[in-house]
Amino acid sequence: MKWHRAAAERCRAAIVAGTLAAIAVGVAAPASPAAPAETASGGASAGAPRPVVSAIAARQGWRAANYVGTVAARVETDLGFPLAGTIAARPVELGQQVAPGQELARLDPETLDTRLRKARADVSMAEQQYRSARDALERERKLVVQRVDSQRRFEHAARALADADAALRQARAALKQAEDLRRQSVLRAPWAGTITRLMVHAGETVAQGQPVLRLAGTDEREVIVDLGEADMAALRKGAALEVSLLALPGLKARARFRSVDPVANRTVRLYRVHLALDQPPAAFRLGALVHVRPPQEVARFASIPAAAVLAGDDGSFVWVVERPAGVVHRRRIRISGRAGGLVRVSQGLAAGEEVVIRGIHSLRDGQHVGRRVAP
Which pLDDT value is given to residue 208? Predict the structure, then answer.
């Protein structure tokens, strides 16, 4: 039994020794090829430069030779009566041109005339009562001076005159109000314009303030055109453009960039631009289609995404990537306009240069970056 126990212990020792030897050989085996790699790099291998999301500065003007716009009124408003009533007449029609002060519609004046006659009668009665109270006070004053009547009766006459004066003022105010309402029962054109919409007809009853018709002013006309972000960035406020009638290309007018709607159309992602017409010919009627052409002075420019701009207290900057070295440099630029998600760069950046648009706050000048990743 002792011999068997000793043999078992020798067997276990041999198995443990063999296992340890195998482990040592497995660990030491890959160490040999790793050593040359460390020797070549001079230590631990450094990671490759990280890729950057960047954009190429584009040299863009208007993408199309011209765009089609529409002549519209700068001022267009709905007109109505400041009081309720029944439309007695509406002497204008759709598309009719009207002059300032011209009658557009009127209410049935029967109720208003009755109120006006009553107000005039009330004023006549109040004036008569005032004269009577004034004469009575004058008599009492003489009697008091002659010591024929008492001071008490004189004070009573004075109060009666004050009441008559207040009643007269109230009656005159009511008369003025009745006259104003009678005058407001006739709707007149506040300016020269064209009737672009009719909401009610003769015989209909309207509420106070309810729109009756729409009037578009013709004194100030503008051109409305829808542009994309890139085309908008080519325009600065006050820039001059050339417009011509679609039906009569030889008939032209000058326009200038006035404003742009703050929100783009959700369907086509275009912005509505308003161009003020400068003394256009009479043929530029409301609703006419026109060609809008960029002026010669609109230079082509470099545009970049607004996300690339690093704003600071001392100006605006971008990170420009130098290829093929893959090094970024911080560069000052001058921005001359913004449109949607683009900015127009007038100085400091040339078309074709690469700018970083993401992670711009974590870069440092001279840093190496990897390949370009399109946004």
Answer: 92
